[in-house]
Amino acid sequence: AGLFSFSFASDTAKKLVELGSCPMCVLRGADLRGAYLKQADLNGADLSGADLSRANLSEAHFANGNLSGANMSESNLIGAELRGANLTGADLRKAKLKRAQLSGADLSGADLREANLSGADLRKAKLKWSRLKGANLTEANLTDARMRKDSLSMAILCKTKTSWGEDNSGCK
């Protein structure tokens, strides 16, 4: 179902690409670089340590999934459903997370440098030790997110909702 080659760890990964659905699947360490998985159902799946770099994951469903340590750098996650997902230590550098649903997600230690999180829902997300330098948080909702205020000092903030009010320090 794609014009790309993979080094599949298992038949489960092949099934995912062919069907676009694999809820609760175990795909630890799978090589899915550049995969086209738009609107894929991966709710509750274990993709810890997987390589999803440069993949099209727009509108994909990862609710309550395990993506800890996954490489999702430069991936398209626009409108993706990641509520309650474990993204601890994930590499999300330059990822497109515009309008992504990340409420209650654990992004502790995640690398979000230069990621586009504009309009993303990060309510009650855990962002401790996350790297946010250059991240675009325009119109993002960070209400009740667990983080230190100073961790946003290098991020782009404009109409950003936070527990301490709306932040417009990065508006141009």
Mean pLDDT across residues: 92
- The gross shape turns out to be elongated
Top-tier CATH class: Mainly Beta
- What is CATH's topology name? Pectate Lyase C-like
Classify the helix fraction into a percent range. under 10%
Which structural class fits the helix and strand makeup? little secondary structure
How many E strands?
2
Biggest sheet, strands in spatial order?
1-2
- The value of Rg in angstroms is 15 Å
Give a short account of the largest sheet: 2 strands, antiparallel
- Identify the CATH homologous superfamily: E3 ubiquitin-protein ligase SopA
- The N- and C-terminal alpha carbons lie at a distance of 42 Å
Organism: marine metagenome
Protein name: Pentapeptide repeat-containing protein
Give the gist of this structure.
This is Pentapeptide repeat-containing protein. With 172 residues, this protein is mostly loops.
Keywords:
disordered N terminus; Pentapeptide repeat-containing protein; little secondary structure; two-stranded antiparallel ribbon; 172 residues; elongated; Pectate Lyase C-like; Pentapeptide-BTB/POZ_domain; 5peptide_repeat; 5% helix
